[in-house]
Design a protein that fits this description.
The chain has a two-stranded antiparallel sheet with strand order 1-2. Strand 1 and strand 2 form a beta hairpin. Helix content is about 70%, strand content about 5%. The protein is mainly alpha-helical. Helix 6 (about 115-120) runs antiparallel to helix 7 (about 125-155). It has one domain (about 10-130, about 170-335). The chain is built from 13 helices and 2 strands; from the N terminus they run αααααααααααααββ.
């Protein structure tokens, strides 16, 4: 399989990385000093209910497509095979139900929070209980999604892990606090485009480096990384159609049906129809991201086979996978 090349950021890489952070912060500054300057609750929390389908749908996608998914999905495929892809079977139903049951209720009540509905439907104590539960959930979630990119940054730059967590946390807090939901949504759009471009680059150049798509598929098959439909009803199995395709529906409902982060984006849409269309638009985007993650995992396996960099001690975590392009036409190498 060849030796694994350990590589680090060049000056150009650092410049690009800093520009990405500056661009994200810049979007927040722009919306802090434009329009109504975030002076009203509706503008700050709901973007004046003025957003169109494209930015809302991409923001919905980006909200829970964190570094955990971008790093974790290829690692899962590399280690255990493509059975994980069947999670995509849950996406359509998991988005159809929120689009036609949850969104109309939230939108027509002119709410800004899912927890307002709990108070209207039940009582204030239920609202408080739901709010506290959500806060605990998001504190844990945000810790994980900040740690994952910091781990990757530490692997390729040697930058202090907790320094990276602090830097990224400060940038995210800055553009959110200054620009409100408009800044968050447009930053999500920008970062989603970067995410797609990065994944596509890994797949295209990595496939070429591995000898072509036929060779990637052949090596994956020989290594038992291509998984068929597993209908085993045993819930103790790592992944089956039932745990992914059926269980995944409930995951999607939790994320896209009642999660405050997503509901707030629905409510920023200019009309109820736009909110519903935004929810539908997430479906193909989710499928593309999942499929690209699986392809990256197969490309990794075709490049390295069973010679895991983790086993060799090159990395401390199986999630520290990165792609480095030194010269697009002459020399392209993967590194961990």
């Amino acid at each position: 399989m060849g030796d694994i090349v350990l590589m680090h950021f060049s000056t150009v890489d650092y410049v690009i990385f800093v520009l990405l952070l500056v661009a994200s912060a810049g979007i927040g500054l722009y919306y802090a000093f434009s329009g109504g300057r975030q002076r009203t609750t509706q503008e700050f929390l709901l973007a004046d209910r003025s957003m169109s389908c494209l930015p809302v749908s991409l923001s919905l996608l980006a909200t829970f497509q964190s570094a955990v998914a971008i790093l974790g999905a290829p690692s899962e495929i590399y280690t255990h095979g493509t059975q994980y892809w069947f999670l995509g079977c849950s996406y359509f139903l998991g988005l159809l139900i929120p689009a036609h049951i949850f969104i109309p209720v939230f939108y027509r009540l002119h709410l800004s929070s899912t927890y307002q509905y709990l108070e209207l439907r039940f009582s204030k104590s239920v609202r408080i209980c739901g709010t506290v539960t959500f806060i605990f959930q998001m504190v844990i979630y945000m810790g994980v999604v900040l740690y994952a990119p910091a781990l990757a940054l530490n692997a390729v730059t040697g930058f202090d892990l907790w320094g990276a967590v602090l830097a990224m946390g400060l940038v995210c807090t800055l553009y959110t606090a200054l620009g409100g939901l408009k800044a968050v949504i447009w930053t999500d759009v920008f970062q989603t485009i970067v995410m797609f471009a990065g994944q596509l680059a890994v797949i295209i150049v990595g496939t070429h480096q591995a000898g072509g798509i036929a060779e990637v598929w052949k090596k994956a098959q020989n290594g038992s990384r291509i998984s068929g439909l597993d209908l085993n009803p045993d819930p103790l199995e790592r992944h089956t159609f039932w745990t992914l395709g059926v269980g995944g529906v409930f995951l999607m409902l939790a994320l896209y049906g009642v999660n405050q982060a997503q509901v707030q984006r629905y409510l920023s849409s200019r009309t109820e129809k736009v909110a519903i269309m935004s929810c539908y638009a997430v479906f193909p985007c989710q499928q593309i991201v999942l499929t690209m993650g699986c392809l990256m995992g197969l490309v990794m396996y075709a490049r390295y086979g069973e010679e895991s960099p983790l086993d060799k001690g090159y990395v401390k975590s199986n999630d520290q996978v990165r792609y480095k392009k030194n010269d697009f036409f002459d020399r392209n190498e993967f590194f961990y």
